[in-house]
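Ligand-bound model needed. nicotinamide-adenine-dinucleotide.
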Amino acid sequence: MADRYLHFTGTAPGRFLTRRLGLPQPAPLPRWSPERPTFEGELLHLTAGTSPHTDALDDLLPRTGLRVARPGSASAAAPPAVVLDATGVGTVEDLAGVHAALHPVVRSIAAGGRVLVLGAHLSPDDPEQAAAQQALEGFTRSLAKELGQGRTAQLLRLAPGGLSGAESTLRFLLSPRSAYVSGQVVQLADAGGPLPYDIDWDRPLAGRTALVTGAARGIGAAVATTLARDGAHVVCLDVPQVAEDLERTAVRVGGTALPLDVTAPDAAERMVAAGPLDVLVHNAGITRDRRLAGMTAEAWSSVLDVNLGAVIRTTQSLVKSGALGEGARIVATSSIAGIAGNAGQTNYAASKAGVAGLVRALAPGLAAYGITVNAVAPGFIESRMTAAVPLMIREAGRRMNSLGQSGLPEDVAETTAWLAHPGSGAVTGQVVRVCGQSLLGA
Ligand code: NAD
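Prediction:
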């Protein structure tokens, strides 16, 4: 199940051989650990032209745990993080400022480091501003493909109201927690009221309850672990057939097991009874792969029902009943297959595209209650689901992304924890890929 090639290229003979043969050499990704929760070194703060947010960023960026340097500072020789504030870019000429700021430093960014481009809300009244800001998207995605050595790049578009509500997202994107997220564009919304200012950034979910479906193993078990690390009491749900594994996960995270099939007629009712909930993670999912010509109606409808139908039904019941109240966070699981399409997965891709449609459609209405709803779209993540993929396709899936390696369940879990964060009220209706910038659907 593990990525043996990645392990091999990390050894001395592996490095020698892959170099000689011209094979890909994926870099080890720095990930979160209790000993190393943030990057070490300095964050380089660049500005393209002028920006209305320079002072606010001077206050906010040090809150990521990194010391902040401005260009020319000798100490920022190999910065693990670079923030380019391009919010002031409003014309094609202004885009030259993007080149001018990053060109001199791009080679010096530390291996495994981050580039975060900050953009502005696209103006509906100024086509050139909208074009120039949209240009940042193509720029960032291309840069993410060029960086190599485990470095990533994302574009964060601020809300019309500016930086308020951006802190949890800056902390996530500028930390080892976002190791397998690259080439993403995240749009912030005005966060609807003041942020909870009493957030404990070490245990942001303390005193909160989260329900995670499909929590017995794989990504769901990692999500339960990460949300528990962040302080949540986790209700771990999975089908009764895997009750033993489920119980093990629940005990390990100090949570509660709820053996339940999400497609059962009483599923919504029993999930409501497990409330009140602050966080709902729809992670349970199945595949029944077959090309359409050979696919049975049963294979079609079972996948659509588990991956999408149950997500819609249970979300609606939990919201309507009030079990998911003010400030709640909903995270559903899409997939890059739902974005790019995948031969043999018409049913699965339909269900996962449906999840993306659902979160976008629900977000505006739920914002009135301070509830956010987002999706994670994993790429190739090591789990039992991907272990079942035929060897050659599995190997291609692992390598066909900008980071040249597969992701871990923890990578999806960290992204989910960011979206579940009480400070992430400005993030809603987003579909965030956790795929190392997979070439599929890029
Ligand atoms: P997995 O098969 O290892 O785990 C899925 C879990 O969901 C299992 O414990 C299973 O028992 C549970 N489950 C299935 N049907 C259920 C039902 N009806 N009710 C309750 N629980 C049910 O899969 P994984 O790789 O950990 O994937 C988790 C999620 O991530 C899924 O939604 C999957 O589609 C999605 N995803 C995974 C990958 C990947 O590369 N592994 C990629 C994209 C998306």
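The first strand starts at residue 42 and ends at 47.
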